[in-house]
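Subject: Protein entry, chain in single-letter code together with its fold tokens

Area: Proteins and the way their chains fold up in space.

Attached in line: The record itself begins immediately under this heading.
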Amino acid sequence: MTIVTEPVALRGGALFWYVMDTFIVRWAHTNPSMEVVPGEVRWEQETWRDFVGKDRCGTVLCLAGYISNVCGGRWLVTRDEHGGLLVNGEPPRRPILGEMDLLIAEPDDMEVYDRYGVTVTSARARAIRLLGLDHDDFDLFTGANSYSDLVAKGTELFGPRPALTT
């Protein structure tokens, strides 16, 4: 997984296209497990933070996860140096069920709740806020989205992809 050491300050469409181009497309072209066929990047949106199962596409994060991660989000569940799961930096006291998409809440997060005594939000809710959306417009974070679906929906929401600069 790409570790972000300096969070980006981008928001809205600029953030969406930055994540699409910097992480998703670059990952596809540098990772042999990602099959790039003409006009299509292999992308499995339903696979995210797959620590316990088999990561089928090699991306580790969904679009919401990449958006949250690149902006400095802190995950509730992480791994220690030996591969063991940690909850908010501590070994879990009970089995971890469905908490892989949770981030430690920030003051601007609107959709928050308690897990393990920590105020959290979902990667989806965080990404919606960071993109400046009112809700999941166009089902942007639906697991069935292909890479082409994400490009089409991003274009509809934020306008055409800006020209890449080198």
Q: What stands out?
A: Confidence is low (pLDDT under 50) at residues 51-59. The two ends are 23 Å apart (CA to CA). Residues 62 and 89 are 23 Å apart (CA to CA). Residues 12-73+122-158 form one domain.
